[in-house]
Each structure stands twice: as structure tokens, then as C-alpha cells.
TrEMBL record:
Residues 43-500 form the Amidohydrolase domain. Gene3D superfamilies: Metal-dependent hydrolases. One of its GO terms (molecular function) is hydrolase activity, acting on carbon-nitrogen (but not peptide) bonds, in cyclic amides. GO terms for cellular component: cytosol. This is D-aminoacylase. It comes from Streptomyces globosus.
Length: 523
């Protein structure tokens, strides 16, 4: 054997009770579990440690981070061995030159400007190939981003797609799925994906269903219209016959305090009718996005340059302010913005770094920053509710997703802390989940959603993507004051049977690869 772990507490990802066993690894796979008499080239005393399948971050924004920082300690140190990229309807493939430039400008706040990436790919397959050629620390899967597809085929105008444009979008989604994407994402509070009608979305979801993928929408409201927005995507998925995964399924803003049970009742009713639904969430109350995302959708029509022009125009800027502060913009989920809850977490231009860590004091400050930073600023939005967070994470179809933006001077601590925070805070300290339930949420259930037949469980023959952690000490190091601090209590992480973390330190091994699911035409 290449490696034998002796006396580990095996938490196998099924949700079943933990048990003590030796686990052997050979050739990148789990070769045996039980009493293993033979030794390995390396034997590790795992007494006192839990051995679990590596965790899957079901909602990651590492699309460029994996290219400019393949070491990726932010996720490897948490025990993450697979991330799902292409989230919220906006990423870098498929695209032509025009679309790529526009998307880069629109999501600089998520991923940085990407000045050190050469962006020679234009297809989903080309992007996945680039990850493989670069070499990455952890595995990565990809969702076809519906907003990028709409920008490519229609542009950034707020109008219905013409029949030929809809056909082009269908073809782009199909091509991405055929090249290995696991599904399609949408960002229905982000331009231009938000301009899609229900009929357009259903047409694209039928393509996703035909390839056996899933739809992952950031739906139209997490605030005033949250339940209606959830109901919309549930109905769309039902109409299209498409599997549904709800992105960062939260109930935010004062209007939704204590209303998570209403969301879960909606999902339970649909699940009981046989629907294929899962969701992800992060174990924190503040949200995180770009400052520009809070603006009304009509202001972003025409793309980033058009939005900057409107912000620079006094009359248009006043119209934007009134929509945000009096009516509640769709970008702020239908809730009038509370500037005191909006904290700047990062800027694209270091010259604007003095803004970081400040709560905005009104529209004029926000406008000034948007113009100075050319829409690149990111913010924390302190609008969540702890009771809702706990209710959602208990649900039977819940999975873990960090929604972690790694870019910026003061990112949300969820980027570096989500998975140990689940294990330390919500398992050990609060008992919201048992250890075996939590590992199933973070490993076994995500692998089932992604239809990966040999990942997500500690089982003979499965890939040796594994994490060893101390259940008594595991904890997030990241905090709002120190958001990039690494976790405690996670000494070993393996990808494909190779240590990417050993004794709590990054090894330099780049064992990850792009995970492509073979498509099928089953419908």
C-alpha cells in the first residue's frame, strides 16, 4: 500500500455512525477499510482524528484564483477537495472577445481584474483544459453561466431574446454541457441574466435536463420577494423536468426574520412529489457581493460602460438613488437599502483601499466609490438572521457552499472558514448537526448531486480525496477582523491519494484536476 491510516474515526459521508478502522490508500484510491495487517510505504497514526471524504464547496468563486494561485491554501486548508465554479450566472466561458471583456469588468469585484491570466480560452472545454494544464491544488467542476451566455448571444440589453438568439443560447449551453460542465447557473439579480424571462429560462433548463445536469439559480430575491422567488425557480425546474440546486439558500433582511420554515415547507412539499432538489448555504449571517450588484437592474442595461455613464450623470444618479432608498431596487432584493449595513470589503484599485472596513454613510459615498473603483468594490451586507441559518442547515437536502470571494483586502471570512466553522461551531459547540450528519452534508450529498460515482464517501475503490481532522479542536481561524487566518485542527488533506496538506502545512502538491461529467441524452 502507498499509505495506511491507523485507528482513524471513520466518518464515511453516508450519514451513518462513525466507526474506528484502518484505511489504506493505493494508486490514488481507497484500497481497504478495516483491520489492515500489512503496512504501507507510509503509515500515519490517526488515533483521535476523524477521517472523512474531502469536502465539496458547492458554491465557489475561485474561477481565476485557481489560475493565479494554484496552491489555493484558502480551500485546501479547510479540507475542500472539490469546488464548483461558474456560479451566479457570470464567469469566463463560453465567450467571444467582446463578451469576455464585458464580463471581466462586471465581476472584477468577485475575482479581481485577472491581469495575470492570458484568457486564451473561449469555450467551457478550453477553460477546463486550462485548469488541467496549469495544475491546481483541488479538483474543480464548472457550471455554464447563463448570464454570460445571454451576454454572448443577446448582449446586455433588457429585452426578450429573439427566436434566433434563444436558439444560440440553447446551443451554447449544450456545447458547455457536452464539454463537461455539470449544469447551468443563473444570477437573477445580476445583469444581464436577470433580463431573462421565465420562458427563456425554462427553455435553457430543458437543455440542461437533456444532458443530466442541474440548474443552480441565484434567484430574483432574497429579501422582500424571497418566497415568491423560490417558488418561481421551483416551478420552472418542474416545468423543464430539470434537477434544481438552490444557490446560497438564505432568507435575509428584517422582512424574513424567522421565516426559514416557510421556505423549507415549500421545498418539502415539492420533494414529497418526487422533485430532485438540493440547496447550499454558508454558516454566517452577513452576505457578500459587489457594491454595483445592489443597484437597480435597469441601471446596468447596456453593460458596465453604460452603468458608469449613468452613475456619472447627475439626473440618472438621482434616479438610481431614489429607486434604492425609496422603492427598494431589484439588486437589493426589493428592500430599501440600509447603508449602515453595507461594509466595504475590497476595492479593485489599491488607491481606494482607505474605504475598506468602512460602513457607507449614504448614496453619495456609494456613488463616489463606484465611479472611483469602476464598479470593482465588494461589500459585506449585514442583513442575515442566525435562526434562519440554523434552520436551513438542518434540512435533509442541504449541502455546504462558501460563496467565498477570495479577492479584496478584507473578504468575508466564509472564504477561508466555512467548512471548519460548520464542524467547530455548529457541530461541536452548538450541536445543530451531528458529526456524521455534517460530513454527509459537506461530502456525500454534494457528490450525489454532481453524479460523481466514486467520490464523496470513504469506501473501497473510491478516489482517495480525504480529510483528517480533530473533532475536538477543529475551528475556523478566519474572522471579520482577520479573514484570511487558516483553520485549526485539520492536519491532513489528500487529493487523489496525495497530501496537499500535511501536518497542517501546504505541501506544494497540485493533485487536482477539472472534473468533467460525461453527458448523456436520457430525455
Amino acid at each position: 500500500m502507498d499509505l495506511v491510516f491507523r485507528g482513524a474515526l471513520v466518518v464515511d459521508g453516508t450519514g451513518g455512525p462513525p466507526y474506528t478502522a484502518d484505511v489504506a490508500v493505493h494508486g490514488g484510491r481507497i484500497a481497504g477499510i478495516g483491520r489492515i495487517r500489512s503496512g504501507g510505504r507510509l503509515t500515519v497514526d490517526a488515533a483521535g482524528l476523524a477521517l472523512a471524504p474531502g469536502f465539496t464547496d458547492m458554491h465557489a468563486h475561485s474561477d481565476l484564483a485557481l489560475l493565479h494561485d494554484p496552491d489555493h491554501t484558502a480551500k485546501a486548508a479547510q479540507g475542500v477537495t472539490l469546488e464548483v465554479l461558474g456560479q451566479d450566472g457570470l464567469s469566463y466561458a463560453p465567450a467571444d472577445d467582446r463578451t469576455l471583456a464585458e464580463v471581466r469588468a462586471a465581476i472584477t469585484g468577485w475575482n479581481g481584474p485577472g491581469e495575470d491570466a492570458d484568457f486564451t480560452w473561449r469555450t467551457v472545454g478550453g477553460y477546463l483544459d486550462r485548469l488541467d494544464r496549469t495544475g491546481i491544488a483541488v479538483n474543480a467542476a464548472y457550471l455554464v453561466p447563463q448570464g454570460t451566455v445571454r451576454a454572448y448571444a443577446v448582449g446586455w440589453e433588457d429585452r426578450p431574446a429573439a427566436p434566433a438568439e434563444l436558439d444560440r443560447m440553447r446551443a451554447l449551453v449544450a456545447e458547455g454541457l457536452a464539454q463537461g460542465a455539470v449544469g447551468m447557473s443563473s444570477g437573477l439579480t445580476y445583469a444581464p441574466g436577470m433580463y431573462a424571462s421565465a420562458g427563456e429560462l425554462a427553455a435553457l433548463c430543458r437543455v440542461v435536463a437533456a444532458y443530466g445536469g442541474y440548474w443552480c439559480p441565484h434567484h430574483r430575491s432574497y429579501g422582500r420577494g424571497a418566497l415568491d422567488a423560490y417558488a418561481e425557480v421551483v416551478a420552472l425546474a418542474r416545468e423543464a423536468g430539470c434537477a434544481l440546486h438552490l444557490a446560497h439558500a438564505v432568507m435575509n433582511f428584517p422582512e424574513n426574520a424567522g421565516r426559514a420554515p416557510e421556505l423549507l415547507a415549500l421545498l418539502d412539499a415539492e420533494l414529497d412529489r418526487g422533485a430532485d432538489i438540493t440547496l447550499d448555504s454558508y454558516p454566517y449571517t452577513p452576505g457578500c457581493t459587489t457594491l454595483a450588484a445592489l443597484l437597480p437592474g435597469w441601471a446596468a442595461a447596456g453593460g458596465p460602460r453604460a452603468l458608469l455613464a449613468r452613475l456619472a450623470d447627475g439626473a440618472e444618479a438621482e434616479r438610481i438613488r431614489h429607486t434604492m432608498e425609496a422603492d427598494g431596487s431589484d439588486g437589493c432584493h426589493g428592500v430599501p437599502v440600509d447603508w449602515s449595513a453595507v461594509e466595504v470589503s475590497g476595492t479593485a484599485d489599491p488607491a481606494n483601499g482607505a474605504w475598506v472596513g468602512r460602513r457607507l454613510r449614504g448614496w453619495e459615498e456609494a456613488r463616489r466609490l463606484l465611479l472611483a473603483d469602476r464598479l470593482g468594490a465588494t461589500v459585506l451586507q449585514h442583513v442575515g438572521h442566525e435562526g434562519n441559518v440554523r434552520e436551513v442547515m438542518r434540512h435533509r437536502v442541504h449541502t455546504g457552499g462558501s460563496d467565498g470571494i477570495l479577492w479584496g483586502a478584507k473578504p468575508h471570512p466564509r472564504a477561508y472558514g466555512t467548512f471548519p466553522h460548520y464542524l467547530g461551531r455548529y457541530v461541536r459547540e452548538l450541536g445543530v448537526l451531528s458529526l456524521e450528519e455534517c460530513v454527509a452534508h459537506l461530502a456525500g450529498r454534494p457528490a450525489a448531486r454532481l453524479r460523481l460515482p466514486d467520490r464523496g464517501l470513504v469506501r473501497a475503490g473510491y478516489r482517495a480525496d480525504l480529510v483528517l481532522f480533530d473533532p475536538e479542536t477543529v475551528a475556523a481561524g478566519a474572522s471579520y477582523a482577520d479573514p484570511r487566518a487558516l483553520p485549526a485542527g485539520i492536519p491532513h488533506v489528500l487529493v487523489d491519494g496525495r497530501f496537499v496538506m500535511r501536518e497542517g502545512r501546504r505541501t506544494g502538491v497540485l493533485a487536482g484536476r477539472a472534473v468533467r461529467r460525461t453527458p448523456f441524452r436520457g430525455r
